[in-house]
Amino acid sequence: MMQALNLLYNSFFTFNNKGRLTQHWPFFLGLGISLCVFCFSVLGFNLHYYPGDLIDGRFNQYILEHNFLWLTGNIDAYWNAPFMFPEKQVFAFSDNLLGTMPFYALYRVFNVSPETSFQLWFITIHILNFICAYLCLYAIIKSSWAAICGAIVFCGSIALQSQMGHAQVFSRFPLALMLWALWSYHHTKSLKALLMALVFWVWQWYCGIYLGFLALVLFGVTLLISFIHGGFNTFKNNTLGYKLRFMALPFIGLLLLLPLLIPYLNRAQQVSMHSYNFIFSHIPTVASFFYSWNGSLLWDGISTWQNDLPDFWDHMLFPGSIAWLGILIWICYTLANPHSSNRFLVYVFIVLFFCFVRIGNVSLYTCIYHIPGFGSMKAIQRIINVHLIFFALGIAFSVNLLIQRIPKFKHLIGILALTVIVCDNYVYPDFIHRRKKSESQKRVNYLKNKLKQVKPGTVFSYEPHELKSSGADYQLDAMLAAQQTGNICINGYSATSPGAFSPYWANPNENNRMAWLRYNHIHLTQLLIIH
Q1: How many angstroms separate the CA atoms of 452 and 165, rounded?
Q2: How many whole angstroms separate alpha carbon 152 and alpha carbon 169?
Q3: Torsions phi, psi of 438, nearest 5?
């Protein structure tokens, strides 16, 4: 951690006599470009939009607001959120985003609206992703321009357009720090570096459970390959104290995770895991990584050719041609050079890539699926969020290779590389998966007006006469209105739910509501029905 703080200070806060930054000015240029062409392409410079749709986008806003209300003492029982009444521990049905709660709370403390705070949280997470990717890449490649070019891809790759509806995977900055710490451990065999890697992995869990699971595989593969590349001999020949401290690290990680895991372990006993046959179609194919999001500047020609895949939009994982070119150069050059210090990272990427891809009916994910907990995951395509740090490494390596050959033109090379990367990954705003903030506010305000004269703590059910879109849209309307008025709703949406709730989830009406309440042996003498 001190190394990270020192690098931050030396990189961004070194001034000359005139008060200007003397080092790493390209960082600010890269961050500014990244914010403009990615963040504000999504949000609009006037913040009229939010990422995702009326369902998952707003659900993640609900989660962050719930965290803030709990943090400020407005909610007593954290896991018993006031939706899906009378189900208990409903927050254990999905992610909780606790790892990034302070960044959202920072804006809410100053009375910024929940919708705008969600947008500002998105911007903050993007900046953190960029900074941490830069730190990781700069530590490994030792070139500011190269690290910036890689960070642009890590934060703004065209592949991330397919992830826009899943705010729980936005926070990837601990993953970059984890890889940096693992890289440091490989070269120093320092247990402090390995402990920091473990802490960053735990932090990634608290930021998002999906990426916590996926980061576990990255952690395990990296440590295994590091052991093969000399780590085992170091361990074998070291002192007993070193060995005991090493073996204690998994228990430290488990202790740090327990407060998060216990509610989910209890919930896992009540819900079934996905079968391997069910999730098989969600494992990316090789073609998925050459299947682009539609509406891009350059790649619309490969944006429809895999539309026959189930949930095809999640398979749009093309990271850009420059990313593929960069990683191929990195792999070929490194494998051809037996003395390369980062050769083991190439092996990590190759193993990781083939762990999460299917070729025909064969996939190594068959083995990973049997690790406890992995059966709960369906959207395996989200592995692209992990792969991008390696695509960023490939680009950084390739740009640095060019700069080393023509060092006096490094600024020109860096600016040209940034320009090409931006064009390669640019998606026109009209094609981005986003919705107008005012649309959500209008829908929620309709219900809030209905609840104006209602005493806080009232249980209500929102049952529109007609559904003009997905039933989940209306469930989120009710959840957000209940949250903002201090009431309780039977309506609910989450990653999953009890099977008996499913009919009401799809169509909130009287029959489905009564069936749900009968299932729970609940008879409400006072229930507010809103149409």
Answers
A1: 31
A2: 17
A3: -65, -30
